[in-house]
Amino acid sequence: DARVTQTPRHKVTEMGQEVTMRCQPILGHNTVFWYRQTMMQGLELLAYFRNRAPLDDSGMPKDRFSAEMPDATLATLKIQPSEPRDSAVYFCASGSTGLGYREQYFGPGTRLTVT
Amino acid sequence: QKEVEQNSGPLSVPEGAIASLNCTYSDRGSQSFFWYRQYSGKSPELIMSIYSNGDKEDGRFTAQLNKASQYVSLLIRDSQPSDSATYLCAVNGANQGGKLIFGQGTELSVKP
């Protein structure tokens, strides 16, 4: 059963703490996307990777957010220091650029609450 | 103008009716179009993809694409209460690599 997995599913932390979210893309997929979803802003793209190389992180606040893909089976999104306005659901999605398709498959998300 | 716009919703239809969800996009060079369904508290789930003009049917779902009018729609036939969810339109624009631009979503409620 090929699925994107994300950990943790829920995270409550205090302002100023570091938060690390992890994502395991579907085996064989070569693109990974990080999104943030809030009621006000909807689904926003934060960053994405192709073949582990970062292609676009323009949606990410650079001073506190960082995204990496240390290997083909793991992508990470870190927030340091976290702020209450970072409270949202963070989704990871993966896809494949083979055959020109652009389908993306989402993980279950990490619900982050910063107090 | 937003890059991808959807009906503001919420859209309410009776069980058994046809639900029609609409989406317009601004990038004329867009090539790939998707519909995602998102239940409350869950992640978006890909339900339809369409790449060429015309209709594409999958069970009770039909996606329609008109590139000249920059318009894509999703029809749900014989709507069921289990179809109640938010439907997100997503577009892969020209020269966007693998990036998808999502609309704000349309909330659909199917009343028994």
Brief rundown of the structure:
The complex is a heterodimer of chains A (115) and B (112). Chain A is built from no helices and 11 strands. Chain A has strands at 5-7, 10-13, 19-24, 31-38, 42-50, 53-56, 65-71, 74-79, 88-95, 104-106, 110-114.
Task: Describe what this molecule looks like in 3D.
The complex is a heterodimer of chains A (115) and B (112). With 115 residues, chain A is mostly beta strands. Chain A has no helices and 11 strands. Chain A has strands spanning 5-7, 10-13, 19-24, 31-38, 42-50, 53-56, 65-71, 74-79, 88-95, 104-106, 110-114. In chain A, the strands form 2 sheets. In chain A, strands 2, 4, 5, 6, 9, 10 and 11 form a 7-stranded mixed sheet that branches. A 4-stranded antiparallel sheet of chain A has the order 1-3-8-7, with no helix packed on it. In chain B, strands 2, 4, 5, 9, 10 and 11 form a 6-stranded mixed sheet that branches. A 5-stranded antiparallel sheet of chain B has the order 1-3-8-7-6, with no helix packed on it. Chain B is globular and about 45 Å long. The model of chain B has no long low-confidence stretch (mean pLDDT 94). The interface between A and B is medium-sized, with 22 and 21 residues.
Mean pLDDT of chain B: 94
Terminal residue distance of chain A:
36 Å
Structural class of chain B: mainly beta
For the sheet with most strands of chain B, the description reads:
6 strands, mixed
**Distance between termini of chain B?**
36 Å
Low-confidence stretches of chain B: none
Residue runs with pLDDT of under 50 for 5 or more positions of chain A: none
| Fraction in beta strands of chain A | over 45%
Overall spatial form of chain A: globular
Encode the helix/strand succession of chain B as letters: EEEEEEEEEEE
Compute the number of strand runs of chain A: 11
What percentage of amino acids of chain B are in beta strands? over 45%
Q: Most extensive chain contact?
A: A-B, 22 and 21 residues
Instruction: Classify the helix fraction of chain B into a percent range.
Output: under 10%
Order of helices and strands of chain A: EEEEEEEEEEE
Number of helices of chain A: 0
Main sheet record of chain A: 7 strands, mixed
Count of alpha/pi helices of chain B: 0
Radius of gyration of chain A: 13 Å
> How would you describe the shape of chain B?
globular
